[in-house]
Amino acid sequence: MKAILRPFILSVIILMFATTSFAQDLVSNPVAPSTLDDVESGINTSIDLSMLVNNGVVTGSFQGDVTARLYYFNGSAGDVVTISMIQQSNDLDPYIVLLGSLGEVIAVDDNSGEVNLSAQIRNVVLPVSGSYFVMVTTPQSLSGDVAITTVSDSELGYLVSLSGATTPTDVVNFDPDTYAVYTGNIATDDIVDGYSSAQEPVFYFLYDGIGGDSVNLNLTSGDFDTALHVFGNGGDRLFVNNDANGTNSAVENFNIPETSQYLIFATDARFEEALLADGNYRGGNFTLSISRPGASV
């Protein structure tokens, strides 16, 4: 089934919210961002992620094929936040990406932390009240260029901390224990079109997976070098691919581990450089498909 995703969703949201033009549907557990004013969002479920609490510290590790993890926090417009990732393993080079609910890249960092090689996004002003993603990884494995390799079952540990975030008071019906982001939806046998822009380089999709099924995911574009990320419950990035077929990305024979929703990032291989005027980010139109192995796309 082929869907022209962004124009369709955009027209629906314009009808519902008058002058508000969003690229993706709001999905949450549920929380309505402040830009929706008094409009209540629909109740949807999303993947379970660990929440970063203000002035708290989260312990995590990478092991095996898991080379990135997604967290979230809620903050208020004007908050000045600092996010740190400190390695607990000598072989780990931390990297942080701060993303907005529409797929905006708010900030990135590699080596600005107080500990050698550690990462810190320091004193960043949040543009709007609502939910934010924090992606932790390494610069080498960000978009699948080089995967972290571990010896046997060894773990590469890290600490993540957040400060400066406050609970929004300007969001109607806000639940501080949940998150909300705008996504497209895709199902098996679907083909959807979207786009990546410098303002919103990452397009979020939700996929309802059936445990035990095997599917192929393909992200193609004639405009830019694509990267495909798949996250599961707990925020673990289960797969990442860049350049499986030229500049196109693919995840073949993905064995769905459990019946659940999965979060997909469809983006440019250099989405983190969307903030740079002279960076390698390009963006443009893309097509994402999910099919059963052996099916024609």
UniProtKB/TrEMBL annotation:
Gene3D superfamilies: 2.60.120.380. InterPro entries: Peptidase_C_arc/bac. Residues 1-23 form the signal peptide. Residues 70-137 form the Peptidase C-terminal archaeal/bacterial domain. Pfam families: PPC. Keywords: Signal. This is Pre-peptidase C-terminal domain-containing protein.
